[in-house]
Batch of 4 targets.
Target 1
Amino acid sequence: MLDELTKSSEGLIDRAAATLQNREDDLNDRMEAMQALLDGQRTRLERQFQGLESALANLSAQQTALASLAANVSNCPGYRAARRGF
């Protein structure tokens, strides 16, 4: 009975250890695959964030330019006269 448990490569303990090792290897492979997916998603989200930051900066610059233009137009004498006519 003890021989059945402890035979090298054929014993119950060795087979259980091999099964556990295979399972560990499979789980490690899954973890590596998941990490690769997460890394790709992180890269995509970082690029998307950078694009949004750039768009926000452009919009802010446009807002500043439009505010300046509106201020210049409202100070124009022709604009004031035209506004009084309405």
Note: The chain has three helices and no strands.
Target 2
Amino acid sequence: MAEFLGLDPNRCFIRFLCKTIYTDMIGESQAEVPVTDYGFHGPSEDFAEAFWWSVTRPSGLVAKAPERASWMQTFASGLTRIRQRFNRDNYPGVVIPVENPECSWPFPVATPEPIKTP
């Protein structure tokens, strides 16, 4: 995602200790700012915050960070295709519904074939 926004995540060699470097990178490139202040801690945290918003507050992500929302939509479309292969009913207690009218997770977009267990 950072590369999509015109940033170089490799400048943050220690991914979780690069708040100053990442903040400077965003300012230098005039890239869209992270969704939350915590996203400035580095590319990993920026991704995590944007992903969380894409699941829990998709319209908020579009309003606040449209470039991140666009990238997440493409990223999530791949996850949705993978998710269609699994039947969540085979994993009772593992998948917990999110109470949010904007979020369809964990409800599948298609009815997959049940996974046969040995």
Note: The two ends are 39 Å apart (CA to CA).
Target 3
Amino acid sequence: MNPTQAEMIAALRPAFLSNRVADLAKMRTAMASGDYKVIQTIGHNCKGIGAGYGFPDITAAGAAIEAAARELDSAKLEESIRRFEDCIAAAETENAAIAPLSDDGVPR
């Protein structure tokens, strides 16, 4: 039986979310060094892909991060990064509830 598109996306969600956790760490490092370009790029990328994996809040948070980094607004950027972190946590909880993994790591 061939998997549906939804099943294929569900199988990719754990890796997608893991990559967003890595993005969060990269943004925090970039924030500490004042590298707004790195943060802007990560925000732009997240804006473009979150909804495709079923996480529109990650898309919205990415857009806010991109805009704040472009404006060099550190206060707004800190707030947007915290919101991004909250979105990741919510997405991980949602993903675990809708796509529990089997022992081999494949969504059931």
Note: DSSP finds four helices and no strands in the chain.
Target 4
Amino acid sequence: MHTSQRDRRSGPRVPLELVVTVRRGNDLATGCTADLSDGGIGLTTDAELDDGSQVALTWRLRNREYQSMAIVRHHLGRAASLEFVDLPPEAAAAIAGVIDQRLMSWA
């Protein structure tokens, strides 16, 4: 049986727009998130991305800058789904806080 990417997600995805810097090797580009989860982001960017490639991300959340590596799980045109790799604990806590806040505001 095939497991869809949605079924493999560890937690909920919430809509959130953040400006993200994407670095692949020496190439830098900016992008904007469409959504965020504890496991990754949906992103729109002009960066040249290939499925399976690893990129470095930098973004600001709650007035603080965070960095993480991510793997491109899927891309189509300018849209991409990225999975965080070794997300730093402080970034994970900030993301969890934003997700909890969004989910509680919907209840």
Note: The chain has two helices and seven strands.
